[in-house]
């Protein structure tokens, strides 16, 4: 008996459907990877990169972690950025957070969550940087939404300060870094207007 048979059935149905609609799709897909976009998003199962922006496989290079965090000690994330920028030559890096983020919520709680608290420390730092503004928002849900936004802005800045992106800009490589947020309630993206395209 095949374990998780329904997943394999779904996969076959998906592959069959694409093959009928575009007979050469998988042949072409197997020969190249030329995405213009690197998506750095949250691991939340409700925020699937390709589906949100309605692009097929091969069009978006994706890295996801809890609360879409980018820090200089995360070699996994930095390796993804380096490969995307230096090898794939993506033109856009998109940090996409989302409202009602569980990681952001946990970071705001005054209790321990275990190992993940080490990761959430980065989000708590974002809160600390903006404590005056955030503490002035009485409604918890609105304060949480604002921290979700500020977290994206902080991660955009972190990406712009990597040696990978700085070197790309110094060599005149076309590369923009964007900060977006996703609304779970209506499925729409919002540009946080923090796009950076070159060294300051």
Report on the architecture of this protein:
Helix 5 (102-108) packs across helix 6 (116-129). With 200 residues, this protein is an alpha/beta fold. The protein is built from 9 helices and 5 strands, in the order H-H-E-H-E-H-E-H-H-H-H-H-E-E. It has helices at residues 5-21, 25-31, 49-52, 75-87, 102-108, 116-129, 131-135, 140-160, 163-170, and strands at residues 37-42, 60-65, 92-98, 176-182, 189-191. The model has no long low-confidence stretch (mean pLDDT 94).
Walk across the major sheet and give the strand order.
Answer: 2-1-3-4-5
SSE series: HHEHEHEHHHHHEE
Spans where pLDDT lies below 50 across 5 or more residues: none
The proportion of strand residues reads 5-15%
Major sheet: size, sense and barrel closure? 5 strands, mixed
- What is the C-alpha radius of gyration, as a whole number of Å? 19 Å
Helix residue percentage = 40-55%
Count the E strands: 5
Global mean pLDDT: 94
Features:
200 residues, alpha/beta, 5 strands, 48% helix, 14% strand, globular
Quick description:
With 200 residues, the chain is of the alpha/beta class. It is built from 9 helices and 5 strands; from the N terminus they run H-H-E-H-E-H-E-H-H-H-H-H-E-E.
Topology, pairings included?
Blueprint: H1 5-21, H2 25-31, E1 37-42, H3 49-52, E2 60-65, H4 75-87, E3 92-98, H5 102-108, H6 116-129, H7 131-135, H8 140-160, H9 163-170, E4 176-182, E5 189-191
Parallel strand pairs: 1-2, 1-3, 3-4
Antiparallel strand pairs: 4-5
Helix pairs in contact: 5-6
């Amino acid at each position: 008996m095949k374990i998780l048979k329904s997943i394999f059935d779904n996969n076959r149905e998906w592959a069959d459907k694409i093959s009928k609609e575009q007979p050469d799709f998988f042949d072409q897909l197997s020969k190249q990877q030329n995405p213009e976009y690197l998506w750095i998003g949250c691991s939340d199962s409700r925020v699937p990169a390709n589906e949100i922006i309605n692009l097929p496989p091969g069009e978006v290079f994706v890295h996801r972690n809890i609360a879409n965090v980018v820090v200089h000690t995360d070699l996994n994330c930095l390796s993804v950025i380096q490969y995307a920028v230096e090898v794939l030559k993506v033109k856009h890096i998109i940090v996409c957070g989302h409202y009602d983020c569980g990681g952001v919520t946990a970071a705001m709680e005054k209790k321990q969550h275990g190992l993940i608290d080490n990761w959430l420390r980065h989000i708590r730092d974002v809160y600390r940087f903006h404590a005056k503004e955030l503490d002035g928002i009485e409604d918890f849900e609105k304060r949480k939404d604002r921290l979700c936004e500020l977290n994206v802005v902080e991660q955009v800045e972190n990406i712009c300060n990597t040696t990978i992106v700085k070197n790309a800009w110094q060599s005149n490589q076309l590369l923009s870094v964007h900060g977006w947020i996703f609304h779970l309630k209506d499925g729409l993206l919002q540009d946080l207007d923090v796009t950076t395209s070159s060294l300051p």
